[in-house]
């Protein structure tokens, strides 16, 4: 069965047909590093992390590019005592640390906008040569994309070019059309010299949208498979990325994915309402794997509402899985294959809620097998559960580190050998005493043909 993804441009599910068989190029818009990450940022990072893990599990070699927007109006607007570049570096570290804390795999490459100014200048020059961009004649050094020159403008958000609202970038300076957006912003006297770079139009800095177009194609080529980002980036950011890249002659992304936003108590998160949940607030409340489970458990395209009970519900659900996985850690042997129903769910536009339902069903079946003393069935379900939680990037701390586990295993195996000797000698009293001691320690034995496995009762 093919992997299907919901494409924003065609508003339909389409089969993944990699441009290069066996390989997938994926670009995801990363953070603008102006303030600490909140749970909306985490949800976006986790969405594409799970996509990437699933595609990789399906045998595809994924090149995953996620940028850092480290120069932008919003960063310069923060001001204060700290230099803009020091702020950007600090917030970037906070994003990386938080993403790793939640088990998000590091991107194949994580380009910074400030390191790719030459690529952006070259792309703008190509647009000018083709008649899709112009420098203003007022001496400001601004360069704009001409929306009127590109009839396809609006296809991502299904707007006719005539209906597109005006762009607010530097409206006061020499724009020919209110809809045109900035590709290059000439330096203003009020801005730090460190926030400007030389260009054919004088000192200045790139507009936000051109950054992603330039970085995506540098690493993934003129055409690539998947472009992802939050729903809030669809317009104007992604619409403009798409227009300028296509106008410059690049094929750009085959499929556009958008993840839904996070609301709190039914309201959009905003500083003015005071309902922003920062990543660190969430991680203060719970362990990372519960936070991860919580943020991936809704379908990635739906709006996820956080309310008083939602974290607790997710924690209880994850505890059921974790409890089973801990009890059966010693039964796990081969965990390379996930159940078919789980795979079918993730193949179908990454339906994580359906996949989690399969996971919970498997845990229930596993617990039933444990209660019935059916070691073979319990071990099979333990393998299934381990395979599924691995694919989702969840992890079970087994309640003890490897050294402790090894020490315990040595003692249990010694007792088992002694029990077996007593049985062979028909010394039933000793054999029963050992069995009772092991049970009193909360350990269940599963006798196999030539080996005995054990689990700690939860
Ligand atoms: Zn972007």
What does this molecule look like?
Strands 4-3-9-10 form a 4-stranded parallel beta sheet. It is built from 14 helices and 15 strands. It is elongated. By secondary structure, it is α/β, with parallel strands linked by helices. The mean pLDDT is about 95. Strand 14 and strand 15 form a beta hairpin. It has 3 domains: about 15-265, Rossmann fold; about 310-400, Anticodon-binding domain of a subclass of class I aminoacyl-tRNA synthetases (Four Helix Bundle (Hemerythrin (Met), subunit A)), CATH 1.20.120; about 400-455, no CATH class. Helix 4 (about 115-130) packs across helix 5 (about 210-220), helix 8 (about 290-295) crosses helix 9 and helix 11 (about 350-370) runs antiparallel to helix 12. Bound molecules: zinc ion.
Summary tags:
458 residues, alpha/beta, Rossmann fold, four-stranded parallel sheet, four-stranded antiparallel sheet, binds zinc ion
Q: What is the residue-averaged pLDDT?
A: 93
Radius of gyration over all CA atoms, rounded: 27 Å
Element pattern in H and E: EEEHEHHHEEEEHEHEEEHHEHHHHHHEE
What is the 3D form? elongated
Tally of discrete structural domains:
3
Pick out the low-confidence regions: none
Would you tell me which CATH topology of the largest domain applies?
Rossmann fold
Strand order of the largest sheet: 4-3-9-10
Strand content bin = 15-25%
User: Helicity range of the residues?
Assistant: 40-55%
Bound molecules: zinc ion
Distance between the termini: 38 Å
* CATH architecture descriptor of the largest domain: 3-Layer(aba) Sandwich
Strand element count: 15
Major sheet, described briefly? Answer: 4 strands, parallel
Query: What's the CATH first level of the largest domain?
Result: Alpha Beta
Q: CATH superfamily membership of the largest domain, which one?
A: HUPs
Number of alpha- plus pi-helical segments: 14
């Amino acid at each position: 069965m093919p992997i299907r993804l919901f494409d924003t441009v065609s508003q339909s599910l389409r089969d993944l047909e990699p441009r290069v068989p066996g390989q997938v190029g994926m670009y995801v818009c990363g953070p603008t590093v102006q303030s600490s990450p909140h749970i909306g940022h985490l949800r976006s990072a986790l969405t594409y992390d799970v996509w990437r893990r699933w595609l990789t599990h399906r045998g595809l070699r994924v090149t995953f590019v996620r940028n850092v927007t480290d120069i932008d109006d919003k960063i310069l607007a923060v001001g204060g005592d700290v230099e803009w570049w020091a702020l950007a570096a600090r917030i970037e570290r906070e994003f990386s640390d938080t993403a790793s804390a939640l088990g998000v795999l590091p991107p194949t490459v994580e380009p910074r906008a400030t390191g790719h100014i030459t690529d952006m200048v070259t792309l703008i020059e190509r647009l000018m040569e083709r008649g899709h961009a112009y420098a203003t004649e007022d001496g400001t050094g601004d360069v704009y994309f001409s929306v009127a020159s590109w009839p396809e403008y609006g296809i991502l958000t299904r707007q006719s070019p005539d209906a597109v609202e005006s762009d607010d970038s530097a409206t006061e300076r020499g724009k020919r059309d209110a809809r045109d957006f900035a590709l290059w912003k000439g330096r203003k006297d009020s801005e730090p010299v460190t926030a400007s770079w030389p260009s054919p139009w004088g000192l200045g800095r790139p507009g936000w949208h051109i950054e992603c177009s330039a970085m995506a194609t540098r690493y993934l080529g003129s055409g690539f498979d998947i472009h992802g980002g939050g729903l809030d980036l669809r317009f104007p950011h992604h619409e403009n990325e798409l227009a300028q890249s296509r106008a410059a002659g690049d094929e750009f992304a085959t499929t556009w994915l958008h993840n839904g936003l996070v609301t709190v108590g039914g309201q959009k998160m905003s500083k003015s309402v005071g309902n922003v949940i920062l990543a660190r607030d969430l991680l203060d409340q719970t362990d990372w794997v519960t936070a991860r489970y919580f943020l991936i458990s809704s379908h990635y395209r739906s709006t996820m509402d956080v309310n008083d009970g939602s974290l607790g519900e997710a924690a209880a659900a994850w505890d059921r899985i974790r409890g089973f996985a801990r009890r059966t850690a010693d039964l796990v042997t081969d965990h390379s294959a996930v159940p078919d129903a789980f795979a079918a769910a993730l193949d179908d536009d990454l339906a994580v809620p359906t996949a989690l339902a399969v996971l919970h069903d498997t845990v229930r079946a596993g617990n039933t097998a444990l209660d019935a003393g059916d070691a073979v069935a319990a071990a099979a379900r333990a393998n299934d559960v381990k395979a599924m939680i691995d694919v989702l990037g969840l992890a079970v701390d087994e309640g003890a580190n490897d050294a402790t586990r090894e020490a315990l295993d040595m003692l249990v195996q010694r007792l088992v050998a002694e029990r077996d000797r007593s049985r062979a000698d028909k010394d039933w009293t000793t054999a029963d005493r050992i069995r009772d001691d092991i049970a009193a320690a909360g350990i269940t034995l599963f006798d196999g043909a030539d080996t005995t496995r054990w689990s700690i009762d939860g």
